[in-house]
Amino acid sequence: MAKLTEEQRQQRATARARREALAREERHQRAEERRQRWRREGTYLSWEEYKAGVPCRGCGQPLLGHASDRPPQSRMTNREREERDNAEKQFLERHGECHEGRWLVSGCPVVHCFACCPTPPMGPKQAEELAKILFSSRSEDRKKELDVWRLTLTCDHVIERTQHNSHSSYSMGITRCSECETDRGVVSSERVGPLCDQEVTREPGTPGPVERERLAAELASAEAKLKRQQRNAAATQIHIDEIRAKLTARANDGGLT
Ligand SMILES: [Zn+2]
Ligand SMILES: [Zn+2]
Ligand SMILES: [Zn+2]
Q1: What is the Å distance from ligand 3's center to 117 Cα?
Q2: Ligand nearest to the CA of 38
């Protein structure tokens, strides 16, 4: 087979990225349609129903068990192993054709299906935890720490989104297209730079003040690392010289006897 040119390789990578983004988008749409149908048809359990032991309205199987968390495979008793194998067999019989993945509630051996079974409701404690995380990450995401990313979507619209600068690639595979008003798969993403720098007019290609600040911090830490490495190298060199000195001293001794 002839070797691909750089251009051909690029084209293939782009085509693959587009295929993957479209597949993600389709999966997302299917999941969204399911959620809407479950909401419409009242398939979701309320927290009270769930706690009272009402079975899954998707498959009719129990959600709550009385076992504690399933032990690791190596520490399972024969009964536990049998129970697990049985649950697995039943899952494949019921959902072998669904291909959307599985979930289970700890303490209950029954395996549920993402395509057929709505996941259990969030408890008040969990909701509180989630709110805390959302709140703290929002207050943490100070404007200065946000980066702008330029995204190309499956609909070919190019939009801009922000995310925290700790990400080295765009973290979402799906995002809302403001033009189509639909959730779309992200085909490619490109980091534009810190959000705050976008408001500063400057020569194209030159870093803005926030980017400069980050680069300066990065430079300082790389320089400190180099200094540490140089000190270590110097210490190793002294050690080498000492060994060498001992070795030649021994050789001289040997020469005398
Ligand atoms: Zn179920
Ligand atoms: Zn299923
Ligand atoms: Zn669009």
Answers
A1: 31
A2: 1
Same domain? For 179 and 77 the reply is: no
pLDDT, tens digit, 9 for 90 and up, residues 203-253: 888 889 889 998 999 999 999 999 999 999 999 999 999 999 999 887 666
Confidence of residue 62 (pLDDT cuts 50, 70, 90): very high
pLDDT(37) > 80: yes
Among 148, 123, 108, residue whose Cα is nearest residue 47: 123
Dist. CA 92 → ligand 2 center (Å): 9
Please report which ligand is nearest the Cα atom of 54: 1
- Count: domains in the chain: 3
Rounded to the nearest angstrom, the distance between the alpha carbon of 154 and the centre of ligand 2 is 28
Q: Is residue 133 part of a domain?
A: no
Does residue 80 sit in the same domain as residue 15? yes
C-alpha triplet 187, 191, 197: angle, nearest 5°: 145
Element (H, E) at 105: none
Tokens read off for 69? 């968390």
- Judged by DSSP in three states, 185 sits in strand
- Asked if residue 221 is part of any domain, the answer here is yes
> Whole-angstrom Cα distance, residue 238 to residue 240?
5
- What token pair was written down for 40? 């419409």
pLDDT bracket for residue 68 (50, 70, 90): low
If you measure from the C-alpha of residue 167 to the centroid of ligand 3, how many angstroms do you get, rounded to a whole number? Answer: 24
